[in-house]
Amino acid sequence: MSTDDKAAHIRRLLDTEGDSVQANTRVFNQGRYAATEDLEDYEELKDRAREIKEEAISRLPELIEELTEAVEENGGHVYLASDAADANRYITEVADDAETLVKSKSMTSEEIDVNEALEATGVDVYETDLGEFVIQVAEESPSHIVGPAIHKSREEIAELFNREFETDEPLETAEELTMFAREYLGERVKEADVGMTGANFLVAESGTMLLVTSEGNARKCAVAPDTHIAVSGVEKVLPNFEDLQPFIELIARSGTGQDLTSYMSLLTPPVSTPTIEFGSDAPLSEADGDRDFHLVLIDNGRMAMREDPELRETLYCIRCGACANVCANFQHVGGHAFGGETYSGGIATGWEAGVHGQESAGEFNDLCTGCSRCVNQCPVKIDIPWINEVVRDRINRGEAPSEFDFLVEGLTPDAEPGGVSLQKRFFGNFGTVAKLGSKTAPVSNWLAELPPSRWAMEKVLQIDRRRDLPKFADETLQEWFLAREGLSPTEADREAVLYPDTYTNYISPERGKAAVRTLESLGVRVLLPDLPESGRAPLSQGMLSTAREQAHETYAGLAEHLDAGRDVIAIEPSDLAMFRGEYEKFLPEASFDRLSAASYEICEYVYGLVTNDPEKTDVLTEGPGRVAYHSHCQQRTMGLGEYTETLLEDLNYDVLTSTVECCGMAGSFGYKEQYYELSMDVGYELEDEFEAAGQRDRTVLASGTSCTDQLDVLLERKPHHPIELIAPDLG
Amino acid sequence: MSTVDTFENALDGLAVETTRLAPEAFEGVLEEVIEKPAVGTLSMESVSLEGTPVATDPTPNQLTESVTGVTGASLGIAEYGSVVLPSTSGGAEPVSLFCDLHVVVVSAEDIVPDMPTAVGTMATTLADGRESAIIATGPSATADMGALVRGAHGPKRVHVLVIEQ
C-alpha cells in the first residue's frame, strides 16, 4: 500500500470504526487492570505460564505424539495437517455428508479459511459466537482476536439484523439482539450435522482440551451434533493436565478482564454425553451413543517458527488480545488497520510472518511503535516489541532499494542494506542528521522550515508538513559543559556519567543543563563523555544491524566508567530502556548485567539520592505548585513513572498524572505522513485530560522527548522535563 | 470466612442465588426453586431427584421444552464461585445447558478453596479417567451486542443448592 493509500485507509477507519473499537478495548483494559490487581500471585502465575509454554514448545514433537496416542486411545481421530489446504481437505472429507455445520469461535479456523472450503463443497456453515455471527452476516472480517465485532456499535448491529432478517418488530437493545441471535442460532445448532470448535489448550497426557467461552455456544457445538471437529494450531499442546491451572486463572483476566469466563470446558472427546436426536421422544438413555471426534492439528508454518529463534516466542501466545487492548494505536483504528490476513494487534506481526508470510505482516507492522506498553500485559511475557522490530528488519531487507537512496547515503552511515526505506533511514540515523543540523544552526532551522524544504521532506521522506520540526540549539549540551567548571573529584560524594542523548544534546540542552545542576548540587560529579547513540532510533525503524553496532560502541564508551564505579544516568527513558532491556539481545550477558545494574533514569536517581539523605531536598526547587505530568511509555513499562511522581510530591507539588496509554507521538511515528492523523487522534485524549476544567493552570511536565513534542503541539502551555522544574535555582 | 461463606459470597457477585440446606430439606427447597417443567440428572449420595417434579432421563423434546435443568457439581471453587459440572452418560451436559434456569446441587464438603486445589483434584479424576467437565462460573453471558446480556446460548439464571450435613 502506498503512503497516501495507507493514510487514507487509516483516516477512514478513524472515522468509521475507531470509536467503537476504542470504547470496547477500554472496557477490556479497565477489566484487565482491575482483575489482575486483585490477583496476589499475578507475577508468579505469568512466570509459571511462561515456563510451561517454553517447555511445551521445546518438547513439541514428542508432545504431539503423546497427544495423538491419548486421543486415539479415547476413541477419537487426529490429523496433523501441514498447511491450510491439507487441513481443509481433511475437514471437508469428514463433513462430506453434512448439510450444515455449526462453529464456535476459532481464530485458527479463520487462518485456514475453513468456512470457504466447506461452503465450496456444499456445507452451510453457521458461526454461533455472537460476535462472529455479526461478522458473518455483515460479510466482514474480525477486527480483534477475542472480540471480532468490536468495531461495530449496537446501533450498527441492530440495523444490520433488521435489514438482513426482516424481523417483525425492529430489534434495538442489546438484550433483544442477543435473544434474537440465541433463538436463530439455537435452531441451527439443533439441525447441524457437525460441530466445529477450536481449542485454547490441549493436554498431551489425557487428550483433554480446554475451551474458554462465555456464551455456551462452544459447549453446544461440541455436544449437540454427533460429530465434533476441533481445529487447533500445534502450539496449543501442554504436557500435563495440571499445567492448565495458571492459564485458567490468567486467560480471561488478560483477555476480557473477567476473573474467569462463564465456561471453561474441559472436554476429553469423544465425550460420554449421549447423542441427542432433537425432536425425538426417546429418552437420552436410549440414544445410540456413537460420537465421532476429529482433532485437526495445524502446522501451517508453526514448526518452522519453532526453529526460528526470533519468531519462536510467538508460539507461547495464548491469544488473549491484551497486547491489542493496551495499544494506543490499536485502540484508535482496530484490527482492520492493525492486523494482517487473520491476526491483529501487537503479536499479530509474529503470527502473520509465521503463518502467512512477511508480506502480510508488512501491511501493519509499522503501527507498532515499540512503546512497550504491551510487555507487562502479556500473560506469557512475550517481548512483543522485539518481534515487531525483528520482522521490520527482515521486511526492510526484503525491500528493493529506492531511487532516492543517494540522497541519504552520505547522511546515513548505517550498516543497513539499500532496501530500507528512506523515511526509516532518516529517522534511524537521526543522530547524524542532528549533528549536521546543529553545526549549521540557526541556518539549518530556517532552511528546514522553508516551503521547498518541507515539500522535499514530504516527497522524499514522507515527513508530514503539518508537524513542526525540532529546532537545533545554537550551543549543544556538550559545548556548554566543556566551557564550564564542574565539581572537582574531592568535592563529590560520587561520580556519574550523564548520557548525552541526541535530543538533549542537540535540541533541548536545557533539560541536560538542569540535570547537571541538580546532580552537582546533590554532590555528584558529572561526566559528559562523547558517546555514540544508544541504538534506539535505528531499532525503532527495524534497522537491527545499526542498532547492534551502536549498542557495542555505546558499551565500549561506557565500560571504563563502569570500571571506575560510576553510575550511568539517562534523561531520555527510551535510551534507558535500551540499556536495561534490548541490550540483553545485543551484548554479552556480563556486559549487559553491568550496564543495566548501573544505569538510572534521572528522576529515579535523584529520588534515590534524596531518599537516602532527605536534607538534600533543600537545594532543589520546591513547591507549592500544581503540575500535570505525563510519564513516558517505556518508563512506565520499567515501573519508573512512580519515582518522578513521588519525587514531585515530596517536593510539595500537587501532581495530576495522565491516565491515557500514550501521547501518540512515539518517537518518529507521529512525524510520518501516513500516521500523522492517527498520532494526533491518540494525542487528543491526553489533551482532554490536561485541558480539563480546573487543570489548565498546571505546569505541564513530560519525561520523554517525543511526548514533549506532542504536548507542545496539543497544548498552549510549553511542556518541560520534570528535572527543569526541580533543578536548583540559577540565582 | 468459611469456605462455604466465601463460595456464597463469590456467587452473589455473579448474580447467582445460593441456598444452603440440609439433605432432609432438599425436596421442599427444590420444589420452590425450580420452575416447571423441569428435567434433571443427579447422582449424589445424600439427595435424589426421585419423588420430585423433576423428570429424569429426559427425552430431547423434554430437554428443549423445559424451563429448568437440575444437575450436580463434583466440586465448588470458593474463590471464584465456580461449579465443576461433570459430563455424564445420563446427559448432565445438555441438561445444564439447554434450559433457561440451571439448578446446581453441590455438597458443602466438595467445595474447595481455590483453583489449584480444584485442578489438582480434577487431574486425578477427570484427566486420569479421561472424563469431561465444565468449570461454570455464573450464567451464560455475552457483551457482543453492545452491552452485557445474561443468557447468550446457555442458561440465563443459575441457582446453587449447597447441601450441608
UniProtKB/TrEMBL annotation, chain A:
This is Lactate utilization protein B. Residues 35-73 form a coiled coil. It comes from the Archaea. One of its GO terms (biological process) is lactate metabolic process. It comes from Halalkalicoccus paucihalophilus. InterPro entries: 4Fe4S_Fe-S-bd (IPR017896), 4Fe4S_Fe_S_CS (IPR017900), FTHF_cligase-like_sf (IPR024185), Helical_ferredxn (IPR009051), LUD_dom (IPR003741), LutB/LldF (IPR004452), NagB/RpiA_transferase-like (IPR037171). Keywords: 4Fe-4S, Coiled coil, Electron transport, Iron, Iron-sulfur, Metal-binding, Repeat, Transport. One of its GO terms (molecular function) is 4 iron, 4 sulfur cluster binding. PROSITE patterns: 4FE4S_FER_1, 4FE4S_FER_2. Residues 307-327, 359-389 form the 4Fe-4S ferredoxin-type domain. It holds the Pfam family Fer4_8.
UniProtKB/TrEMBL annotation, chain B:
InterPro entries: FTHF_cligase-like_sf, LUD_dom, NagB/RpiA_transferase-like. It comes from the Archaea. It holds the Pfam family LUD_dom. Residues 52-163 form the LUD domain. This is Lactate utilization protein C. The gene is lutC_1.
